Each structure stands twice: as C-alpha cells, then as structure tokens.
Amino acid sequence: MGVKLEESKGRVTFFDTIRGLSVVSMILFHFTYDLFFISHIKLTWFTPLLMQIWIPSISYPFIFIAGCMCAFSKNSFKRAGVYSLVALAIFTATTFAKVDTPITFGIFFCMASCTLVEALISRFIVMPKGYAAAILFLLIFVICIPISAGHIGVGNMIFSLPKELYQTPYLAWAGFPSPTFSSGDYYPLLPYLFLYLSGAAFNRQFKEGGYPDWMKTFSLPLVTEMGKHSLLIYILHQPILLLIALFISQNIVL
C-alpha cells in the first residue's frame, strides 16, 4: 500500500539513505585521492579506470536524487541560491588553498544551475513529470555524456559538435570547455541537467501515486543521517581529509 508524503509524518528515508551511501563513497574516494596525490602513498589499485567508474557512481545518484527533491521543494529558487553560495565558497577556498586545481564549475555549481533551470521550466513552461519523460531525459543524458569532449552519441553513433563552441573561454559552465580550461571537479550544466530533470520527472509522478511504506522507513544506521546532512558533510569533509593527508605527507615516512 502506498502512503502519500503529504499524508504522513517525517521524511521518505529511502532518499536520505541513497544519498547517504553516495556521501560515504564520496568521503572514501576523496580520502583515497588525497592519500595518492597529496600524501604520495603508492596505491597500485587506485587506477584511472577505477576513478572513471568510482566518480560517476557517486555523482550520478547524487544528481538524480537532487532532481527527485524538486517534488518536495517549496522554493527551488532559494535552493538554487544556497547551492550557488556553496559553489562560490568552494571555488574561493580551493583557489586560495592552492593544494590542487581550483574547482571552478563543480558539483554544487551543477546543482545550482540545474535547480534554477528546472525552477524556470516549471514556472514558465511546463513542469517535467511522468515516467516516460524521466526515461527520455535519462536517454538524452546518456547520449550527451561525452559533450565536454566535443561530441555526443553512444557506441559507433557519434556526432561531432561545432568546434567553435570549444574555442571560447566563456562556455565551460555550459559543458563546452576550451583547451585552456581546468577545474579540480567539473560538472557543467550539460549533460547533467538531463539527469537532474529525469529525477524531477520521475519523483513527481511517483509522489502522486504515493510512496510504498518500506520507502518511508528504509534506513541504514548512520548512513541515513549522513544523507540528511549531506550538504554540511560535503563542506566539512574535504578540509579535514586534506589536513590528514598533509599531516601524513609531512610526518610519516612511507
């Protein structure tokens, strides 16, 4: 039996738990990254291939769940503003810290821009909703994943995009980085907007039908709580991990 969110007390803890799992994986990844690149610990298993798999396994669910939250948001413009402030703080901190490449258009810029676009679409055009729309947005996302490399498509069906898009320094935010662009974490508006919209369309439809009881009570010790406070954890975890990595590199002989 489904239970509609507005008729029940508390949160749908399933979303918190999935987000929490992504947070745990993110912390483990960043700590491993810091140990490898800052502490210079030889981790032979931490290969580029593993990073290519590990990173999207964290960020894709995170962005999709963020899109799902549109169904609960009372003010998406305010939420976009909060994400923007966090993105600005991260850019400022990573620029002045000079520990790694500054994060210019990272995950929170992505969250801010996607939330803003979704809010504008919902207010002035039509609210994305429905399982068919969610699948369509997801397919478009998959097709557009390599957009920052200058093309879109899957497998042998590859279509090159105009080179002019990548010759200006002003379109990196949209997903068209120039050859001189660099960022320690890069999540532009495209292609991730489509993953975000997929989550928004999916959960608006799901919410109307009512959530199963198990989704409202599904939780894992500590993990669910971490999912509830993911923003604060994101802000705090990296400085702490960096300090640990710097301490190891300066005081422990490996």
Question: Mean of residue pLDDT?
Answer: 90
Largest sheet: 2 strands, antiparallel
What's the number of domains? Answer: 1
Number of helices: 9
Q: Which stretches are poorly predicted, pLDDT < 50 over at least 5 residues?
A: 1-9
Keywords: Membrane, Transmembrane, Transmembrane helix
Domain Heparan-alpha-glucosaminide N-acetyltransferase catalytic: 11-239
Organism: Lancefieldella parvula (strain ATCC 33793 / DSM 20469 / CCUG 32760 / JCM 10300 / KCTC 3663 / VPI 0546 / 1246)
Protein name: Heparan-alpha-glucosaminide N-acetyltransferase catalytic domain-containing protein
Helix-strand blueprint:
Blueprint: E1 2-3, H1 13-37, H2 48-68, H3 76-97, H4 107-124, H5 131-144, E2 151-154, E3 157-160, H6 189-209, E4 211-212, H7 213-217, H8 223-228, H9 230-251
Antiparallel strand pairs: 1-4, 2-3
Helix pairs in contact: 1-2, 1-9, 2-4, 2-6, 3-4, 4-6, 5-6
Keywords: Membrane, Transmembrane, Transmembrane helix
Domain Heparan-alpha-glucosaminide N-acetyltransferase catalytic: 11-239
Pfam families: HGSNAT_cat
